[in-house]
Structures are given as C-alpha cells and as structure tokens.
Amino acid sequence: MLLAAGAVACVFLDGREKLAARVCLVIVLAGSLLIAVDAVKVLSGGVPPSVAVDLGVPMGIARFEVDGLTALFLCLIAGLSTVCALYAQGAMAPYFNRSMRVEKFFFFYILLVASLVVAAMARNVIVFLTALEVMTLASFFLILFDHGDDGVRRSAVSFMVYMHIGLLLVTAALLIGVAGSGTMDLSGITTHFKPHLCSNGGSVGILFPLLFVGFGFIAGFVPLHLWPVLVHGGAYGGAYGTPSRPVPAPMSAIVSAILSGLVANMGIYGILRVVSLAGGLPLWIGYALFFVSVVSGFYGIINALAQHDIRRLLAYVGIGNIGITGAGISVGLIGLSSGLPQMAALGLSGALLHMVNYTVFTGLLFCGAGSIGSAVHTNDVNLMGGLIKRMPFTGFAFLVGVMSVCGLPPFNGFISEFIIYGGIITGFNPSMGLLLATLVPGVAALALIEGLSVLVFAKIFGIAFLGECRSSGATQSVESPKTMVAAMMILCAVSLFTGLMPTVAVKALQYPLSALHAGLSGVPPGGIASVAGDVSMAVIVFLSITGGLLLLRLLALKRAQASTAPVPLPVGKRAGKAPYAPPEAPLTWFGGYEAVNPAMQYTVSSFNSPLCGIAGSRMCGGDTEGSALGTPGKTLPLKETSSWALFYPNAQDFFEGRFYLPLWRAVERVLGKFSRIESGHKDGRIGNYLLYMLSALIILLILLVVYTWNGGSFSQVLGALPGVVRWS
Amino acid sequence: MVLALALSRYFLMIAMAFLMAGVIVKVKSFWAGRYGPPVLQPLYDVWKLLRKGHVVSGTTSAVFGAAPSITLASVLSAGLVLPIGGGPAVLHFSGDFVFFAYVLALGRFFAVLGAMDTGNSLEGMGASRDVTFSALLEPAFFVIMGTLSMLTGLTSITEIYSMAASMVDFTILASIHSTGSSGAMTYIAEAVKAWSYSGLFVPVLCSNIVLMISIIVDTGRMPVDDTAAHDELTMIHGVMVLDNSGPDMAMINVARAMKIALMGTLVTGLTMGLVVPTWVSGALCLVIYAFIMLIVAAAIGLIESVTVRMRLSRVPQFVLGASSIALIVLSALMIGRS
Q: ipTM score here?
C-alpha cells in the first residue's frame, strides 16, 4: 500500500522528459492499480492495513491506515486520476513543441495525485497537514501552467489564498488538539477530547467548528466557496484562445476536473474523517451543517442560472452538489444524535455515494467542457450551438453528465439523491418538532434545487449542443481525439452502471459506513441496498418502456413511408436566402417567418428571463446597479459576427462583491500601515528587522513563562494574552 | 394475479386519460354553446397521427427524434407507481414518489431538449417558460407527499393512500347505513365528523387544491396556458411542439393526456380515501374512481371556460401560491402535532 504511494512518488524524476504524457499515464495507471487493489480488498471486507513509520523527532511515529472511508476515497483518486491521465494524452497534444514545458504539468499532476493519496491515508497530524499543503501547491502550479495569461495568474493566486485560509483553520484546530492531548495521532487527539465532546466547553468548543469551517473552505461550502468559482470560471473569462496562442481549454479542463472531483472532495473527506474520529457530535453541528448545505445547494444552482461561461457554471453547480453531499452528511449526523440509526445510515450512505458520483460526473462534465472549448475556442455557451452534429461522442458524453448531475434516472446522480431523500423521509417523525421544521423545508429546497438544475442544464445542453451553430468557431468544430473520447466514455459507463446496479455500489459502501460510525455497522446493509434495488427496478422498467416506444415509433414511421407515395418534402422556397439550412432538408417552422438566422435562437439570458421576472435581478446575477435583467445593461458587440449583439448580465458572485472584496480591501488598508515600519528607514532596514525579531522572541519567552507559571492548558495561555500585552 | 389486477387498473387509467381529454373539450364546447367533437376524438386523433409520416427540420439531431418517445415513456412509467381506484400500484416501494417526480422531470427535460433542438426561438421561449414554472412547482409536490407521509408514517404512495383511507373511520356511518334510520343530512354530518376525527380533512383538501393547480400548470391549461391560442408568443406548451408531426406528435398528445390522468389519479385517490368507506371494494371502487376522474376533467374544463389567461408575468405568482399553500398546511400541521 505504501509501496503504491512510493511508486507514484519516486518516478517524479522520470517524468522530466519531453512528451512525458505516456510515461505519466503509465505511472498513474500503475500507481492507481496498486492503490485500487488494496482499496478494493478493504471495501470487500479485508482487514484494514495499517503501517507505522518512525519519521524522527518533529513528526513522531507516522501512522498510515486504509480503513473503509480511506479505501473509498483512494478508489476515487485512482479512478479519476487514471481517466484524466488518459484524457490528457489527447488533450495535451496541442501544447507539445511549443516550449511550454509540458513535462512540468505532468510532474505536478503526479505530485498532486500522490499528495492526495498520502493525505487520505495519513493518521499523523503533521503528515496530514504536509500532504494537504503539497496538494495545494501542486494544484497551484497546475493552474499556473499557462502563466502567460493574466486571468490564470489571478485565479491561481486566489486559489492559494482561499485554500490557505482553510488550511490555516485546519492547522490551528489540529494544533490545539495536539497541544491539548499531547499526541500527534489523529485518533489519539479525538480519544482525548471525546469525553468533553458534548459539554462544549473549552477548546473542544472551538476545535470541531474550526475543523468543519476549515474543511468547508476546501470543499467550497457557501459562503466559503470562492475558490471553485474563481479557478474554474475565473481564468480565461469569456472568450479566449486567440489564434496566436494555443488554446488552454483542455489543459485547464483536466485541472478543473481533478480540483473539483478530488481536491474539493478532500474537504468532504476531511469532514467525514472528523465525523468518524469524533464518533458522535453535538446535535447542533448536524443542524448547522444541514442549513449551510441546503443554502450551498440553493446558492450554487441559482448562480449557475445566470452563467454563460460553461466552466463558471460548472463551478457553481459543483458548489451545489457539495451542498447536496453535505445535506446527506448532516442528515446522517442528525440521525446519529437523535437516535435514528436508519436515518443516519441512509443519509451517510447517500452522502458517500453522492461524493463518488460527484467525482464521476464532475470529471465527465469538465472533460466535456474541455473538449468543447478546444473545438470551439470559447467557453461562452452563447457562441456554441449545434455541436452534437459535429461532435457526437462528446455530445453524448455531455448529455450523460448533464443527466447525472441533474439527478435524472437512469444515471448515478439519481440513486444518491434518492437515498438522501430516503434518509430525510425516515426522519419525518411527528414527535420531533425541530427535526420536522428542519427537514421539511429541506426537502422542499432539495426539490427546488432539482427543478432548477433541470432548467439550467436543459438550457445549457440545448444552447450548446442543439439547434444551429451560433459562431464560426462552432461551425468549424471537430470531434476530439480518441483518447479524450475514450476517457469520457469510461466515466459515462461508470455513471450508467451505478444508476442501473445501485445494489453493488451500496454494498461497497458498507465498510466505509461502519468506518464512519461504529453504531452504523449494526444497521443491516440489505435495507439500504433493497431501497436502491427497488428504485433501480423501476428505472429498468422505464428504460424498457422507452426502448419499446422508440421501436414502435420506427415501425410506425416505416409503415407510413411504405403506405404513402413518396411525397416531395416541402422544401423551403427561400432556402437559398436562409443561411443555416441545407437546401434539401425542410426548414424549422417559424410561424411563417422565413428570413431566419441562427442569431435568433434563444440565448442564456432569454432563457432565464421568466425566472428573473419573479426572482429579481439579484437572484439571477443581475448587474450591480440592481436594475432588472430586461433593461439595457452591458451589451457587447461580438467580434466575429458584428451584425448581432449579446446581452451579458453582470454575474459577479454576491459574496465576492459584498464580503470578500471589501474584506481584502480592509486588510490591505490595515496592513498598508505596517509598510511604514517595514521600509521606513532605507539604511536601517536590517537593524529594524533584527529589532522585530528580538521583540518577538521576548514576547514568546514571556508567554512561555506565563504558561509554565500557570501550569495550565493552552487555552489559559490564550486567556492570559491580553494581560501580557497590557503589561508589556 | 395481484400484478395482473394492478396492470388492468393501470390500463384503465390510460383509457381514462383519453376520456378525460375528450370530456374537457366537451365541457368547454357545451359552455360555449357548441356541440363539440366526440368524446373519443383525442383517441381518433392519435390513431390518425400514428399512421402519418413526419416532416423533420434539417436543423434537428437525433435528440429531437427521441425526445417524444422518452417523454411518453417517462409519463407511462410514472403512472406505474400510482395506486388506482383504491388498489395497490403496479410498482410500489419506499420513496416511490421521489421516483414519480424525478421520472416526470426527465420527461420534461427531454421535451425541452426537443424544443431547443429545432433552433426556433419561439420553441425556446415555450421551453423556458415550461421548465421555469415546473421547477417552481416541484417543491409543492414534495411538501404534500412529505405531509402525507408524516401523517401516515409511511413512505410509498400506495401505502400512504391506503393508510389515509383506513384512517377515516366510517364505522359510525356503516351502522347508520345498515339501520337505514336517518336522512341525508345526518349522513353528511357523520361523514364530516369522521373526517375531522381522522385529522385528514384539511391536509387532503389543501393537497387536492395544490394538485389541481399542478394539473393546470403542468399540462398547460387555462388560466396559465391557452390550448386554443393562435399566437405563438403567448403559448407555452403549444409552441414547444411546433415542429413535431406524425407519430411523434401522437406520442406528445398521449403524454399530455396521460399527465392529466396521473395528477387526476392522485387527486382522486385522496378524495376516495375521504368519501369511500373501506368496505367498498373491487369493481365498485373502479367505477367510483372513473366517476371522480371524470368530475376532475369536467372541473378542468369548467375552469378553462370561465377564466381568462393570466399575463405571463403573473403565472409564477400563481405557481408559487400553490407551493405556499402546501407549506402553510404543513406548518399548521406541525404546530398542531408537536
């Protein structure tokens, strides 16, 4: 098991060759296979392997363990990283021989995968934090690969900042834990704090909330969600890829797929790990998480509505789905604390399954978006159109991804959402008022999220893939290379398999579930499996009805053709004038109007307009002035088709505009004052810094003295701090 | 045997779908002082369309061809989980109402894709309106089902409905019936008493109102959508299928009729739970079912006749009203219970 991590890690140097793509694929594949073998062994009931390595003084004994939860996450890492490496074979081809140092990309790719693996297995605080830090840095450099672009640099830096806020909180929480318990082992810390868990006193009171908020930053819960938005959507905002520069779409698609499918899920994994270590959390954490999750789900989908940049849209949808996963987790937590094991088991297994499914379909969607981007040279949905005829395989894959993410049968998203609903319904207990008051609006919100996702994705798929091409880029688009298509097809197959055979998937969740909470191993896994099995039965019935109807339709059409004499089709008389239809095929019926052109098709904003009529501009990302979406806002003439214009609402993130940007400005103001002491004296600079260091040392010494004098805990030191400051 | 009976009830619902569509038109014609087409005209239309060829726009792709079949399949399989005429559904399992809602959403998704595939801005307009209004309606259904599930403690539509029916205690009524001692007024009074004891009267009444609103919005009836409109700009459902013809159009028509029947069956099932004593069973139940379904159809026709189409910007308020009713009922129940 460690060997696998080693195998991935030690071949970094080999990755440093020209055209390292194949090497990368082989390494990732080999590493993934090794990891997956171990993980599958654990998932099918093997003894969780555990290794302890003595890493010397600062770290102590580093314990690595693969329990059910880790095994599940390792499977995700292995699967998605292999698929993305396969995708990269075709996707990275445009960058070869352009002196863009492609091998660096693969180096950081392998580093990222390795750090994820180590983070998932680590049980030692320092190793865990180091792995998370390496993960962040590797992602940072991956994002920064195309560093010539201003937007890329900005989004990479934002990623750094927001991830590090999360990491900082996690670090702080874990250090409090280490200080309090005197051990570096994660489970050691929690066993130390377990007795005080429900009393909410002292440092326990902040330890768990800090961990949740920290991992929430990494996962991207609202309002801690800015990094996905800025990274996936911020770079290359709008149209990009001038002829002089290679198109960055496929490369950044891989990065986005990995970041969204694995790094964001690392936050979810962290939360689940905390849940599993704590063994039982105060009830209010469950309710708080439920509230945050539902808000995230709702916020994500509402913001996705207004996006015309496909990647930014996917970022928001990702936030929404993290919210749905979080809702599952919180249903589980509430169930655990309220003594409803069935509800807890359904909620948590739904959350685990949704975590897996989210990885699958977010990978699929980002890969699809990358393929589109590299073919059409834009991320703007309004400039696509008619792609399914030019890129049929990508179109099919994207359709599967879209249906999965909407939770529509027969794909995987439906199953996990169904199980989460099952958990919520199990909690409908008339004797528990608070529970009901939380869950029922929750169900309504989930239903609304589902309805709105159908709206968002029917719109996006309809505009991007159906109808007529809306730009010259779309007309000239061609299907992606075979490796990219193959990678997407693998994900499609996984999605369909989970959707049709959910019992297999649910059975695999048994060990992760019992790793999450010992009490859940008592819940018969057959119960959840049969719930999933029943609905998959209904889904199969639906599929066979669909097949039957399609067959009947073909028969009816054949008979109609055979019985009637071949009537010449009513070819549009002015087909020559209408630029978009081949003269042989009949035109779309426009109510008698014949001078039609592709620019008349419905756009994102026009599709949104009925909803914006009620929701108001704020909800649909209207412009900052607060004027309605229908009033003239920013109207941008397009470069390539100067004869028509598009309306773009200002879709800045609410929290970015109202909270984070003012916050950063304030930070800048405050820190700006320090710049005076920093570089005020040009000559005495070094002397000044020495002075600062000396005073810092003195303060530390005083703290230490107070600490030993009190002989108390870390919190007492914190409590003594104001006094010390006053005294000094 | 159970399955065969359930299937035959299911086919009765499909038959009722055509009949209801005919009755709606008949009622509207009667109100307008016309004679109207035969009640079975929808069936004839479907038969006629099935034998015709079709014209397909050159803009469209395979999605356009598959969409009507998938939409119809979704409606047909949603019907499989509905209990019809007091009997159990063909398929029933825990949480089947989630399947019901999601599979209908799938059908709507493909209907929208089919409309978008033509590249026609008018069809895009209809699609956008349809999917917006339906999304707003989605929570209402879940809240209703959640309420009923909470009241009965069960999680499948079949179980919920049969439990709701058995919660209304008609034993008092039965004794009156057997002695035959009193008139209609006592009969009604006792029935009301039985309803109020069961605690189901208010939730069922409100659920039925919300479900009726769902029918109107989901199937494009007045005052939301005018099936007889001539101007594409004001249509919702009519404009989504401008380019469909032949067997595809037939399937779209069947799917629409079926959707009315599905929601009608939900309304009828709840109503029957209230008004039909549990000792009534078998064929008589089915007759009562058919009768109430026709009343529902007549009510829709009547509403269509006496209302005018709302401004499109007013429709969301109407739809959200439906959701609010459901939520208000539920919170009232929660306060009452806890």
A: 0.90
